[in-house]
Amino acid sequence: MDWQTTADAVPARIVSEARALTMAGRAPATGAWREGDPVGGRRFVTIGDLPLESGETLPGVRIAYEQWGTLSPAADNAILVLHALTGDSHVIGPAGPGHPSAGWWPGVVGPGLPIDTDRYFVVAPNVLGGCQGSTGPASLAPDGAEWGARLPFLTIRDQVRAQLAFAEQLGIRRFAAVVGGSMGAMQVLEWAIMAPDAVGRIAVLAAPAAATADQVALNSVQIEAVRSDPAFRGGDYYDVPDGEGPTRGLALARRMAMLNYRTAAELNSRFERSWQSGLDPLGGGGRFAVESYLDFHGNKFTRRFDANSYVVLTQAMNSHDVGRGRGGVAPALDRITAASLVLGIDSDRYFSLDGQVEIAAVLRRSVHGPEPVVLHSEYGHDAFLIEHAAVGEALRALLAS
Ligand SMILES: CC(=O)SCCNC(=O)CCNC(=O)[C@H](O)C(C)(C)COP(=O)(O)OP(=O)(O)OC[C@H]1O[C@@H](n2cnc3c(N)ncnc32)[C@H](O)[C@@H]1OP(=O)(O)O
Ligand SMILES: N[C@@H](CCO)C(=O)O
């Protein structure tokens, strides 16, 4: 397929992005892209100019993706997997060149697993606005400099438009299923509304039909944490020396996000009041184990994610409202004809269960009836990434429908 480029032929712009990402104040880390590195198993499709909901056009859009399994001659066995806010196309497989982390859904996707790559052709794009190969703030604008904060505002619908063009390039007119969690599930809902003929089944995991005021608020303080870092420089930091990028603000945003993604019960039972370094908590020095955990996740995150992308994607989540311009949420959901799985997590304090209750009540072809599947878990929002057996069982039921 001649529209694909592979690790053997790395487009110049990708090398530039690799440079941008490593220049963004990241400590060199295993798996981080560097100039000259191969791009691993990642593939790329250029979909060209993309008209946006704002009326602007984003030129020369490229989508990075990975694939597993074999597309049938009739192209009727494809499953589209859409990642969450900080995920990427690397759904399964080890970390390595081009892959900052190991795959995020082991146990769910693979040979013999619920999304069975012996049977299905599984394809996973990196989201538009992301920082793992698809066009985003670290990509070059037509003037030859990185877009940075100049990247036009992107909505969830814009991301889905890009995915539709991407699917067309792959020659896939209809997916057997479109599956995603959190931000990925926002896109799943839009797929089912914007392109009903292109979607056989949908799995909506842990996402609302519209971002609520509470969710926007939680997201907004994270955006502000990034922007208020002096090293953010209004989003223009790609040429600063290594180590001087906006890592402090980005790490703080990740720490805050982790508190949305996990639960009080988990943190309390896992860390208790344990204190690291052996010092007395009242004596100064050292830190609580839970602080160390948040520091670890904040710091690790800055080695694999671009601050501008974090802002762009978080704003896209805030834009999410399936009812916008469609007469409201219920009429919009009522347009969905695909067989559906709606799954919520009882301990999710970010995208709480009532959001999935609202969706499941309207969808007509839900495999579990008018109620969402409720995953009982202590892990909160992140349970859709951790509870592989329960999530897999629900997906099997959907795919068998
Ligand atoms: C699997 C991936 O990392 S995928 C990477 C791409 N990321 C995504 O796609 C986003 C989705 N993934 C995520 O959000 C997360 O990675 C999750 C939800 C999958 C992780 O969930 P969990 O498996 O429960 O990991 P958890 O939150 O317990 O973190 C484990 C890490 O914290 C570290 N840790 C635990 N306690 C502490 C502590 N007190 N102090 C410092 N570090 C600590 C562990 O050593 C471990 O480190 P490692 O990641 O190097 O192995
Ligand atoms: N842990 C997930 C949660 C967002 O849904 C992520 O970082 O992408």
From TrEMBL:
Substrate binds at R254, D382. Belongs to the AB hydrolase superfamily. MetX family. One of its GO terms (biological process) is homoserine metabolic process. Homodimer. It catalyses: L-homoserine + acetyl-CoA = O-acetyl-L-homoserine + CoA. This is Homoserine O-acetyltransferase. InterPro entries: AB_hydrolase_1, AB_hydrolase_fold, HAT_MetX-like. HAMAP family: MetX_acyltransf. One of its GO terms (molecular function) is homoserine O-acetyltransferase activity. Its main location: cytoplasm. SUPFAM superfamilies: alpha/beta-Hydrolases. The gene is metX.
